[in-house]
Structures are given as structure tokens and as C-alpha cells.
From TrEMBL:
It comes from Paraburkholderia metrosideri. One of its GO terms (molecular function) is galactitol 2-dehydrogenase activity. Its EC number is 1.1.1.16. This is Galactitol 2-dehydrogenase. Coiled coil: none annotated. It holds the Pfam family adh_short_C2. Keywords: Oxidoreductase. Belongs to the short-chain dehydrogenases/reductases (SDR) family.
Amino acid sequence: MKTIDLLRPTPGLRVLISGAAAGIGAAIAQAFLDVGANVYICDVDPAAIDRAKTAHPQLHVGVADVSDLAQVDRIIDDARAKLGGLDLLINNAGIAGPTGAVEDLDPAQWERTIATNLNSQFYFLRKAVPLLKETSANPGIIAMASVAGRLGYAFRTPYAASKWAIVGMVKSLAIELGPNNVRVNAILPGVVEGERMDRVISARAESLGIGFDQMKGEYLEKISLRRMVTVHDVAAMALFLASPAGQNISGQAISVDGNVEYL
């Protein structure tokens, strides 16, 4: 096999992606469709799911709040039926959570952030792992963490806590599932350009009492390459990890961030 062929996931790969009707998840779904994968996505937003299905009729879709165990179980069952099994789980769903000093945070917002970002990944794993153990098509799990899963992040403690936990879960599962030939990795996006990041910057600027442009400039100063990454950068890493070229990569937390030095 030529080296270039190793970089392309196997056609027909059966992929389930959570939180994939917009943003990073949508870019990943598009990338896998482009290489001939059979893709199922879910999202909490029915309108966004409808738009995704209209744009890509070949997509399999479902609506779910991933923080709810019963809804995740329903999605897994539907994906298994429509895909005929599963080769790759991409745990992508997540929210930014609140911004503020820890003593000012609403406990309900903390719980919502942990439920959506961390508990949801466990809910998908508990039913997806048995399906992955049954396939021989280079099975894998990709967990979406964040650069905030390797660096401290003042005023964003719920988000950072959830992302650090995801990295710990990935490294543990890589050991647990290695004998079953299931690879487990985390992708740690950095400052990803787009509306979501703009909202994060605005909230942090407000909490610090400074302007948006100043806050954005401070974010860029923390990045060695002095630029944000794109959703397509993250999608490319997901494709690589799912390809034959990534067959011996497991237990890794891989940053796609231009080298964020600190937060």
C-alpha cells in the first residue's frame, strides 16, 4: 500500500459523531462523508439537524440531549440499526459553560457543564464500546477535549475540569481497550475561529472589564503561531486518527492549537 493511501480512512467506515450539526462536529462529519464514510450524527437542535440532513441526504441523523442517558441509549440503538454496526465513535458534543469567579458560579451551570461535556461521553462509551469490539475495521474512539484539558483556565473552571477529565478517561480507556484492538485518543482544539469562540471571548472580556478586541488580542498573544485554528484543522486530525496511518496511535491527547502557551 502506498503511503498516501494510508492517510485515507477505509471507505464505508461506520462513524457516529455527537453534537455534529454545527461547528467542529459538522466539519468532521463533512470530512468523513467526503472520503466515503457512512456517517450518523446527533445534535440537541432539531432545526440544525434538519438543515444538515437537507444538505447531506446520505447522513443518518437523530436528535438528542446528550446529557440524558435514555436519549443517548436511543441514539446508539438507532445508529447501530442504520449503520449496521460501528467502527468509530467521535464524542464531540460539548458546551462552553459559564464564565466567572468560582465563588460566583451557579451550581446548576456547573452541573450542566459536567453533564454535557463529561457524562455524555461516558453514556456513549458504555453502549458503543461493545459494538467497537465486534468490528475489525480499525476501530477507534476520538474524544473531543480542549487545550483547556492541558492548561489551567481561570474563570472557566467547569469547562476546564470537564476537559481534563476527558483526557484522563481517554488515557485509561486506551489501556483498557488496547487488547481488544480499539484505539482511544483525544483531540485538544485550541482557539477555534467562529461564533462560539467570539461568544467565549465576549464573556471573558466582560468578566474582566475590558473590550472584545483587547481580549481577542490577548488570546492571540498566548498562541505561538499567533493565529486561531479552524474547524477544518480539527477535522483533518480526526481523519488522520481514523486512517490506517493512525492504526498504532492510542492513548494520546493531541493538541491542534498553534501551540497555545498558556490560558
